[in-house]
Amino acid sequence: VEFLYCDLASMKSIRQFVQRFRAKNCPLHVLVNNAGVMMVPERKTEDGFEEHFGLNYLGHFLLTNLLLDMLKQSGTHSHNARIITVSSATHYVGKLHLNDLQSRCSYSPHGAYAQSKLALVLFTYQLQHLLTANGSHVTANVVDPGVVNTDLYKHVCWVVKVVKWMTAWLVFKTPEEGASTSIYAAVSPEMEGAGGCYLYNEERTKSADVAYDEELQRRLWTESCKMVGIFDESSRVP
Questions:
Q1: Has keyword Secreted (predicted)?
Q2: Distance of CA 83 to the CA centre of its chain
């Protein structure tokens, strides 16, 4: 195991990480996008993005796109490279405000978190569409880890913290259990060549209806490219 520092809330840090990783000339077979914050007070990243959207979504969007050529080079017909992005059941109640992705008009910690998680599902489906159109040996899937007992809940109100403390043993998964579906997506032979799936408890399931809106997927992708300053590859794909 080797550690390389990368702050997903910083576009500069992400680009520096990618440079360091490229210098190693290693193949890249699996990328798991798993960083995140939840229901934090209204605040911005160093790039001026609302923190949920900037860290949970845009950070992973940029990182994945900058590593995409390495993933394509590493994948083969019989062993696809795999991208796994961790979303949440919260995406089911999320609404994507394309005219206010930074939640400037009306900030709600829960709403901003849910929007970032919905954006990750839309991103995954559009990414798989582009990978398929290009004939790439790379698959992209999105995972719901379930309710996991981690420090992600440190910003929730004290009532929720008390309930969590009382019921964690009954309803919360351990971190190991929470990681199982991501691991399944990353290494299971059953997932070889399968992309564009929403996985929960190691099974394919249906995401929110709005996540299948192809026009919304494209519009979010195009806007995201503008926000992080990269070329929009989707403009080349019909």
A1: yes
A2: 9
Q: Which of 180, 190, 192 lies closest to 143 in space, CA to CA?
A: 180
113 is catalytic: yes
Q: Cβ distance 164 to 154 under 8 Å?
A: no
CB contact at 8 A, 44 and 51: yes
Which tens digit of pLDDT belongs to each residue from 128-137? 999 999 999 9
Contact by Cβ (8 Å): 142, 207: yes
Burial of 157 (0-12, 13-18, 19+ CB in 10 A): exposed
Q: Which of 113, 125, 184, 198 is catalytic?
A: 113
> Which amino acid type is present at position 14?
I
- Phi/psi class of residue 18: alpha, beta or left (left: φ > 0; alpha: ψ in -120 to 50)? alpha
6-24 pLDDT per residue, tens: 999 999 999 999 999 999 9
| The residue to which tokens 């579906």 are assigned | 181
Domain ranges of the chain: 11-236
Instruction: Give domain 11-236's CATH superfamily.
Output: NAD(P)-binding Rossmann-like Domain (3.40.50.720)
The single-letter code of the amino acid at 185 is A
Q: Residue 82 has which token pair?
A: 């795999």
